[in-house]
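Checklist before submission:
- one chain only
- standard amino acids only
- sequence pasted in full

Submission:
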Amino acid sequence: ELEELDREQADLFCMRFMLGCTADETAALSGLSRATVDRRVRLARAWLFRRLRGEAPPDEISNV
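Returned file contents:
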């Protein structure tokens, strides 16, 4: 669901937590600043947490 809503956030989340990249490595691979990576990953984590708890509508990621 996350990938359908925001492919980039899903990719960043995967780099950080599934591939084990650091924030700096993720920033370098994605061409984004570390601050942007941190912000987008934090939003993705919050959305996923709420989604797993059944609280987040599946079509809203920016309002977490």
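Reviewer check: The longest helix spans residues 34-52.
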